[in-house]
Amino acid sequence: MVTIGTTHRPATDLGYLLVKHPERVHEFELPTGRAVVCFPEADEARCTAALVLEVDPSGRRDTPDGFTLGRFVNDRPYAASSLLSAALNKAFRTAMGGRSKDRPELAATAIPLDVHLPVLRCRGGADLAHRLFAPLGYEVDATAIALDAEHPDWGDSPYVDLRLSGTLRLADALHHLYVLLPVLDDAKHYWVSTDEVDKLVRAGEGWLAAHPERELIVHRYLAHRRTLSEPALERLAEQDDRVVDDSVDGVAPEDTDEDAPALAVVRREAVLRVLRAAGAQRVLDLGCGPGALLADLMADRRFTEIVGVDIAPRALAVAARRLRLDRPGAIAERDRQRVQLLQSALTYRDARLAGYDAAVLMEVIEHVDEARLPALVRSVFGAARPGTVVVTTPNAEYNANYAGLAAGTMRHADHRFEWTRAEFEGWAAGVAAEHGYTVAIEGVGVADPDRGAPTQLAVFTVAGGTDD
């Protein structure tokens, strides 16, 4: 069983999103049994939908626990597993598509949700449940279920009681469950073929490519078949490759001097100026992409330790080629020792990133879902806590200056948001106050008198100087 609840008002709108009337019981036949959707509570203040899967163990041909009687004696009727994932897809297919005929705007809106799986088969225990759901913005309460409550010395069972809460789109939450239930189960109930790669990539769009446990998720979801998981990982790496055209997909701003340097060059020069003024020597380039800034940092010997960080292996491979790190003897050994490339997700704390003089987030934050920005802020400003943090992001007001950019659209297809100057200033002020930094903001590039500069740059400095 899984329950999904909300306190969005009116809470009964959950029925419109799930395309299920709260006053009815909805039944679905599945190859493995019968699924029932009902609403144990439904009023204006709170609404909860329950999906209950009644599994016929004798109707299944697989043996998840690998013994002869496994077809008849198993946990499938009693614990949430990959079977429940298939039932979610059957019962809530329209909701998973992010569609609602009656509440289309609400379907696209993040709302408070809580999910409860009272008995979840979890190979990896409560810790793995945290690792899989916390980076997606959930508050996670995972409690291991004792093998026998009367004999605690027998240890824990393979099951957890899992509660998730967060503010996100219902479609996103359903996709997370659809993918991660089989991953936690790690015993898929059906034959895994090449079609499953397409299903995984579709269901993981917008979140799986940047997940810190991406490889584990892919390998388990695809039943540890490397012939399938390796192509899937390549496709996800391409999805997460944040190599952005400097001229908004080839569209130049109106009234731009043809001889003026590209905005990307001006932006990097501005970042380097800030780093030099701060006296930084050990620098993190977070979300380094193909390594353009890393190359500029390497060219300046005052930067004695340079670390490029990105979630996408493809981007790191491009950066390694750009810096000639992939060819022995191509650069001096002392230069090679100054540079390190790390794969890491910025929304997940990484002890390797702590203790640096400065960190740069250049055109990175706009590629992160706004709901996940607090996790990035905690990992960078809270856990890593460099003395100086430089953040650049597009100025949404300036977009009107791009002749080929339609009104209301963003500069790149992968941008999750673009902020006005006031929105960026408000966010920066909040981050600085919460984490003990001061902040100064400036524009980068030729400024429009009414709309400001094309790029916004914030310099965060630890209040009172860098920590020892």
TrEMBL record:
The keyword Methyltransferase applies. InterPro entries: 3'-RNA_MeTfrase_Hen1_bac, Hen1, Hen1_N, Hen1_N_sf, SAM-dependent_MTases_sf. It catalyses: small RNA 3'-end nucleotide + S-adenosyl-L-methionine = small RNA 3'-end 2'-O-methylnucleotide + S-adenosyl-L-homocysteine + H(+). The keyword Metal-binding applies. It is an enzyme of class 2 (transferase). Residues 1-237 form the Hen1 N-terminal domain. Belongs to the methyltransferase superfamily. HEN1 family. This is Small RNA 2'-O-methyltransferase. It comes from Asanoa iriomotensis.
